[in-house]
Design a protein that fits this description.
The chain is 42% helix and 14% strand. The protein contains 8 helices and 7 strands, in the order H-H-H-E-E-H-E-H-E-H-E-H-E-E-H.
Length: 241
């Protein structure tokens, strides 16, 4: 990553987080008073605004297919491939309800930003620690049971080329949905790496594709079907690359 050329972009992102702070007291109040529906709506409002500001700043465009397949509300688990940091934007800007993210533990080190990840019902995961990962999945499943939707990138790393072969899909990621018995929405993202990862700087006037696939009901699946679920979802996501 190139430090100096990215300073203006990082400052903008920092200001964007500070802009979101005007919602912080309201979200925290709703959470404290167990006003779950109001909390979900407020989280969705702030994430939509946050993502719109980013898309406008760099003139990025998301080409979305399958939007009509999205439910009107959650909870669901979005399972997606991962190409770059811009992958979070479709879930904030296009999905019409709240989404929390399963985020890598390294992001916990970023002051203030880390607080916002947890405020929107996101959770940090340490994939190197099996016991800690299981705890994270259990916490995420509890959020789902309360009505909050979650996004997880089961590859655990980014691929940076169009049509790049997908990495292994960690089976534990699917326990989010199977424990809470909520539907899975497979999502394919293609080209988002061009926004930043390809050059190491924020690049204006880029576009990338997102495909929302048919929902998968896991509640009635047999043990054998659940065993095959990671490979099935991987094939669905790969079909749109």
């Amino acid at each position: 990553m190139k430090i100096l050329p990215n300073i203006p972009g990082f400052l903008f992102l920092a200001r964007n987080v500070l802009w979101a702070d005007s919602y912080a007291k309201g979200i925290d109040y709703m959470r404290e008073h167990n006003a779950i529906e109001e909390e979900r709506d407020l989280i969705n409002e702030v994430l939509t605004g946050w993502s719109r500001r980013i898309l406008k700043k760099w003139n990025w465009e998301i080409n979305a297919e399958g939007v009509e397949k999205l439910p009107d509300k959650g909870p669901v688990v979005f399972i997606s491939n991962h190409q770059g940091f811009a992958d979070v934007l479709p879930f904030m800007n296009i999905v019409p309800f709240q989404c929390g993210f399963i985020a890598k533990k390294e992001l916990k080190k970023i002051p203030h930003f880390a607080k916002w990840i947890t405020r929107v019902r996101g959770i940090f995961i340490d994939r190197s620690d099996v016991r800690a990962s299981l705890k994270t999945i259990a916490e995420g499943a509890d959020y789902l049971k309360q009505g909050f939707s979650m996004v997880i990138f089961p590859e655990g790393t980014r691929s940076k080329e169009d049509g790049h072969p997908l990495g292994d899909f960690h089976a534990g990621s699917f326990k989010l949905a199977t424990k809470a018995k909520v539907p899975i929405v497979p999502v394919t993202i293609n080209g988002s790496y061009r926004c930043f990862e390809e050059t190491g700087v924020m690049v204006k006037n880029q576009s990338f594709d997102v495909t929302f696939h048919d929902m998968i009901d896991v509640a009635s699946m047999s043990r054998e079907e659940l065993k095959e679920l990671p490979e099935k979802v991987k094939e669905i996501i790969a079909s749109a690359l």
